[in-house]
C-alpha cells in the first residue's frame, strides 16, 4: 500500500511513476487508482522475478520502463 | 512414566496456521495462510495438496504444478474479503511523461528495507531481521526512513531488514525487489539516458498517514531537485 501512496504524492508533485505489483496485490491498483501499474505473475517478495533469473527480471523492468512512454491515461494497468 | 502413553497435542490446526504469522512457526512466505481467507478445512486441504504434489513432483522431477498451486493459493490468501474502507480513491493523479525515454533520467524506490553497511537507519543500529520480526508491532509505528543507496553499491555492502515480507529471495539476489543491477544494465544498453546517483529504499510497513503527509512530499522534492523524469516504485 505504501508504494501506492508514494505514487499518488509524486504524480501530484509533478513526477511520473510506474509501480510494479505482484499479482497478489493487483486489487490495490484499482482501489488506490495508482497512475501506471505493471502486474507481474510473481510471488510476493519476488516482485520482479525469481532470484538470479536475470532474463525474467529484465523482461519485467523493460515492460515497466516502457510504460512511462506508453501510458496515455491515468490508472493504466498492464499485466505481464 | 508410561512409555506407551500417547502424548496428545493440545494445539488445534487453526492455532497451527495462525502461528505462521509472527508466531512460533513464523513463515513470511506462507503467512497468507494464517488469515481468515483460509478456514481450518481449507488449510487442511492446502497441506494435503502440497504433500501430495510434493511426492508427485519428486517422482516426476517437475515442480511446476506445485509452484503454480502455491502461487494460486497466495492469490487467494491476499485477496480482500470485503470492500476496503480506507485509502480508496476515485481519481488517479497524473503527470504526463513528457520526455522521450532515451533522453530520460530515472530513479527507483523499493520498499524492500535495503540500506548500505554503515548506514543503518535504526537507532541504535544493528537490529537483525529476526529481532525486527519479534518487534514488528513497534516497527509498524516508526516513521518511514528513506535510505539512499549509491547505484554502484556492491552486493556485499547491501543490508536487508524488513519484517513485513519473506526476505529469503532478496538475500540471494536483491534484484527481486530492488532491481538496481537490471536498471544499470538497461541504461548501459541506452534504453534510457541516466539514473540518479542513488537508488532508494524504505520499510513499507510503516505509518501510512505520516508517509502521505510528511515523508512522500519531501521525497518528491528530493527527486525534483535531481531533475528526475520518472521513478520506478517496487513494493516487496
Q: What does it look like?
A:
The complex is a heterodimer of chains A (80) and B (236). Chain A is built from 3 helices and 3 strands. Chain A is an alpha/beta fold. A 3-stranded parallel beta sheet of chain A has the order 1-2-3, with helices on both faces. Chain A is globular, with a radius of gyration of 12 Å. The two termini of chain A are 20 Å apart. The mean pLDDT of chain B is 94. Chain B has 8 helices and 7 strands, in the order H-H-H-E-E-H-H-E-E-H-H-E-E-H-E. The N and C termini of chain B lie far apart (51 Å). Chains A and B meet through helix 1, strand 1 and helix 3 of A and helix 3, helix 6, helix 7, helix 8 and strand 7 of B. Strand 1 of chain A pairs parallel with strand 7 of chain B.
Primary descriptors:
heterodimer, A: alpha/beta, 3-stranded parallel sheet, B: 236 residues, 2 domains, 5-stranded mixed sheet, globular
Structural class of chain A: alpha/beta
Give the CA-CA distance, first to last residue of chain A: 20 Å
Average pLDDT of chain A: 97
DSSP helical segment count of chain B? 8
- The SSE string of chain B, one letter per element, is HHHEEHHEEHHEEHE
Distance between the termini of chain B: 51 Å
Largest interface: A-B, 57 and 71 residues
Major sheet characteristics of chain A:
3 strands, parallel
**Overall outline of chain B:** globular
The tally of helices of chain A reads 3
Q: What value does the Rg of chain B take, in angstroms?
A: 22 Å
Strand % of chain B is 5-15%
* Annotation, overall tally of beta strands of chain A: 3
Could you name the ranges of chain A where pLDDT drops below 50 across 5 or more consecutive residues? none
- Strand element count of chain B: 7
Amino acid at each position: 500500500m505504501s508504494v501506492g501512496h508514494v505514487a499518488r504524492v509524486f504524480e501530484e508533485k509533478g513526477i511520473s511513476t510506474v509501480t510494479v505489483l505482484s499479482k497478489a496485490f493487483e486489487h490495490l491498483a484499482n482501489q488506490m487508482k495508482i497512475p501506471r501499474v505493471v502486474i507481474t505473475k510473481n510471488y510476493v517478495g519476488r516482485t520482479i522475478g525469481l532470484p538470479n533469473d536475470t532474463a525474467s527480471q529484465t523482461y519485467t523492468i523493460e515492460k515497466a520502463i516502457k510504460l512511462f512512454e506508453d501510458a496515455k491515461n491515468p490508472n493504466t494497468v498492464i499485466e505481464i | 512414566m508410561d512409555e506407551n502413553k500417547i502424548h496428545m497435542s493440545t494445539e488445534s490446526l487453526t492455532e497451527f496456521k495462525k502461528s505462521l504469522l509472527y508466531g512460533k512457526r513464523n513463515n513470511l512466505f506462507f503467512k497468507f495462510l494464517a488469515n481468515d481467507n483460509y478456514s481450518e478445512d481449507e488449510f487442511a486441504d492446502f497441506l494435503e495438496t502440497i504433500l501430495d504434489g510434493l511426492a508427485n513432483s519428486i517422482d516426476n522431477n517437475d515442480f511446476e504444478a506445485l509452484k503454480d498451486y502455491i502461487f494460486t493459493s497466495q492469490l487467494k490468501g491476499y485477496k480482500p474479503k470485503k470492500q476496503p474502507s480506507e485509502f480508496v480513491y476515485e481519481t488517479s493523479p497524473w503527470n504526463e511523461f513528457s520526455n522521450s525515454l532515451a533522453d530520460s533520467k530515472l530513479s527507483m524506490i523499493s520498499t524492500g528495507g535495503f540500506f548500505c553497511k554503515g548506514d543503518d537507519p535504526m537507532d541504535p543500529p544493528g537490529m537483525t531481521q529476526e529481532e525486527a520480526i519479534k518487534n514488528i508491532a513497534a516497527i509498524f509505528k516508526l516513521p518511514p526512513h528513506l535510505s539512499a543507496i549509491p547505484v554502484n553499491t556492491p552486493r556485499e555492502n547491501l543490508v536487508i531488514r524488513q519484517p513485513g515480507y519473506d526476505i529469503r529471495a532478496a538475500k540471494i539476489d536483491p534484484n527481486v525487489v530492488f532491481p538496481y543491477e537490471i536498471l544499470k544494465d538497461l541504461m548501459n544498453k541506452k534504453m534510457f539516458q541516466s539514473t540518479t546517483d542513488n537508488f532508494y529504499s524504505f520499510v513499507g510497513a510503516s505509518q501510512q498517514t505520516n508517509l502521505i503527509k510528511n515523508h512522500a512530499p519531501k521525497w518528491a522534492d528530493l527527486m525534483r531537485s535531481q531533475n528526475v523524469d520518472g521513478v520506478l516504485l517496487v513494493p516487496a
